[in-house]
């Protein structure tokens, strides 16, 4: 039955910009903080307070617009979107309706059927609302205005997506572009990237659109995919029963795996938009635009091509490393310090990814410096430390970014290359393990591995395994 229907999806993606201060005042945008401490008369909507645009917000918005192939509006202004809600202190939100900053863009995604372009209708700047906390214990609602006035861009796509997979590919592409620009960390779990899904279904082959619903409360890619599948099935079921789909805003409950209505879907006229009288229009000249264009970074696709030509590392490594701009920066900086690209890649792909997964961190959370990673690689290259010691030191470096050279020196972890000391230890191991010695002499090659292990254990991992092997064979 479902095959007779096509899903049509458009997204409204809200992205919190990485400015230090809010869009129209000087309050901090830092995540967390005691409730209502990052506030002032402007972001709490006090009468008579006047907003002033943060220039960095405009720079980020234009940078994202250029990276998504949009036309940048040379003349734009802000509008007031009027609605009453307790987390909205002015009773209006400053946004852009009539003249948004960016229009008519597109991004390319990879799908099962190959490449596909997703159109971007517009990108506009606006302020975020505060946050309501519903206290069931005391049967009341509390409001925190720390988030009120945090700068957002809203990226409105065309209804060009046809499946949950395409939606996820589009969101991942947007997130990658924005993270490479440094315009936002795009952490869904912290709300710095949020997506509302507009979805409708129609009979396969039909040209017109069905009635759409909008789904909110989607804070992970998994929730977005589940919500799309759930809403698609719900709408098809209604149509099959001869019922109508109602245009409304629905809230997705990921734990329950279902959505429920919040309110009927408003049109622009319901918000009584009008130009904001307190904010002057923005005029963008060629000089400003060229300055932003010159600052654009090397994006992932270009980086992947360059890595393939410049560094002798596998395609899989390239894909993972360039998946995070921060990880790519660490890789390039460490290589620039003289480390071999494959060795740097091995540390990032192996121990770094293992520890990130273990601690539930993102690649952006990597805090060790390229200088210290280069020093650790040098210590292993010169056999100043053994592989097992290097891994131990790396764990501490991952947590605290210590200088590995000083740490190895201070904790007496350098590899023992003194042949006299090693020979004595090897002799003791041979004397203490007669069965393994006999096995080796009978032709069981594996027995020497056990003796190497016992020697390394006796040396607390501080011996050169190659030297141990050589001495064992000599003495046996």
UniProtKB/TrEMBL annotation:
Every copy of the Asn/Gln amidotransferase domain together lies at: 329-476
Name of the top EC class for this enzyme: ligase
Q: Per its UniProt record, what InterPro entries does this chain match?
A: Asn/Gln-tRNA_amidoTrfase_suB/E (IPR017959), Asn/Gln-tRNA_Trfase_suB/E_cat (IPR006075), Asn/Gln_amidotransferase (IPR018027), Asn/Gln_tRNA_amidoTrase-B-like (IPR003789), GatB (IPR004413), GatB_C_1 (IPR042114), GatB_Yqey_C_2 (IPR023168), Gln-tRNA_amidoTrfase_suB_CS (IPR017958)
Name a biological process GO annotation.
glutaminyl-tRNAGln biosynthesis via transamidation
Q: Which UniProt keywords apply?
A: ATP-binding, Ligase, Nucleotide-binding, Protein biosynthesis, Transferase
Q: Give the reactions, separated by semicolons, that this protein catalyses.
A: L-glutamyl-tRNA(Gln) + L-glutamine + ATP + H2O = L-glutaminyl-tRNA(Gln) + L-glutamate + ADP + phosphate + H(+); L-aspartyl-tRNA(Asn) + L-glutamine + ATP + H2O = L-asparaginyl-tRNA(Asn) + L-glutamate + ADP + phosphate + 2 H(+)
Q: What is its EC number?
A: 6.3.5.-
Entry annotated with the keyword ATP-binding: yes
**Has the keyword Iron-sulfur been applied to this entry?**
no
Q: Which GO terms describe its molecular function?
A: asparaginyl-tRNA synthase (glutamine-hydrolyzing) activity; ATP binding; glutaminyl-tRNA synthase (glutamine-hydrolyzing) activity; transferase activity
Q: Which family does it belong to?
A: Belongs to the GatB/GatE family. GatB subfamily.
State the protein's purpose: Allows the formation of correctly charged Asn-tRNA(Asn) or Gln-tRNA(Gln) through the transamidation of misacylated Asp-tRNA(Asn) or Glu-tRNA(Gln) in organisms which lack either or both of asparaginyl-tRNA or glutaminyl-tRNA synthetases. The reaction takes place in the presence of glutamine and ATP through an activated phospho-Asp-tRNA(Asn) or phospho-Glu-tRNA(Gln).
Q: Which PANTHER family match?
A: GLUTAMYL-TRNA GLN AMIDOTRANSFERASE SUBUNIT B MITOCHONDRIAL AND PROKARYOTIC PET112-RELATED, GLUTAMYL-TRNA(GLN) AMIDOTRANSFERASE SUBUNIT B, MITOCHONDRIAL
- Assembly, per entry: Heterotrimer of A, B and C subunits.
Task: Give the protein name, as stated in the record.
Answer: Aspartyl/glutamyl-tRNA(Asn/Gln) amidotransferase subunit B
Which species does this protein come from?
A: Parablautia intestinalis
């Amino acid at each position: 039955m479902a095959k007779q229907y096509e899903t049509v999806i458009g997204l409204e993606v809200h992205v919190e910009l990485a400015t230090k201060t809010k869009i129209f005042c000087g309050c901090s945008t830092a995540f967390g903080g005691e409730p209502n401490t990052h506030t002032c008369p402007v972001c709490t909507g006090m009468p008579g307070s006047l907003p002033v645009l943060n220039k960095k917000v405009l720079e980020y918005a234009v940078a994202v617009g250029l990276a998504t192939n949009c036309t940048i509006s040379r003349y734009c202004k802000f509008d007031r979107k009027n609605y009453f809600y307790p987390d909205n202190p002015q009773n209006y939100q400053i946004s852009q309706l009539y003249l948004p900053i960016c229009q008519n863009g597109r991004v390319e995604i990879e799908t099962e059927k190959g490449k596909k372009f997703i159109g971007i209708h517009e990108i506009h700047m606006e302020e975020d609302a505060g946050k309501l906390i519903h206290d069931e214990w005391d049967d009341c609602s509390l409001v925190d205005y720390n988030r009120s006035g945090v700068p957002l861009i809203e990226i409105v796509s065309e209804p060009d997506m046809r499946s949950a997979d395409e939606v996820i590919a589009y969101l991942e592409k947007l997130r990658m572009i924005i993270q490479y620009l440094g315009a936002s960390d795009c952490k869904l779990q912290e709300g710095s990237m949020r997506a509302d899904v507009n979805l409708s279904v129609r009979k396969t082959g039909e040209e017109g659109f069905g009635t759409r619903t909008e789904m909110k409360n989607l804070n992970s890619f998994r929730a977005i995919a589940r919500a799309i599948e759930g809403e698609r099935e719900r709408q098809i079921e209604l149509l099959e029963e001869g019922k109508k789909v109602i245009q409304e805003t629905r809230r997705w409950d990921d734990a329950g795996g279902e959505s429920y209505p919040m309110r009927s879907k408003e049109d622009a006229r319901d918000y009584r938009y009008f130009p904001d009288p307190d904010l002057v229009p923005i005029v963008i000249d060629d000089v400003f635009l060229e300055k932003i264009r010159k600052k654009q970074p090397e994006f992932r696709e270009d980086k992947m091509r360059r890595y393939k030509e410049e560094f002798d590392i596998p395609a899989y490594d390239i894909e993972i490393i360039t998946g995070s701009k921060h990880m790519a920066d660490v890789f390039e900086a460490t290589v620039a310090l003289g480390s071999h690209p494959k060795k740097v890649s091995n540390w990032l792909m192996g121990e770094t990814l293992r520890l990130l997964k273990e601690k539930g961190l993102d690649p952006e959370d990597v805090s060790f410096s390229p200088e210290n990673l280069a020093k650790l690689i040098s210590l292993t290259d010169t056999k100043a430390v053994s592989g097992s010691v290097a891994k131990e030191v790396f764990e501490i470096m991952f947590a605290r970014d210590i200088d590995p050279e000083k740490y190895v020196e201070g904790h007496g972890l350098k590899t023992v290359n003194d042949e006299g000391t090693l020979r004595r230890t090897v002799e003791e191991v041979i004397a203490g393990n007669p069965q393994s010695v006999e096995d080796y002499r009978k032709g069981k090659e594996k027995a020497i591995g056990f003796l190497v292990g016992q020697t390394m254990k006796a040396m607390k991992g501080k011996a050169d395994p190659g030297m141990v092997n050589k001495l064992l064979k000599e003495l046996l």
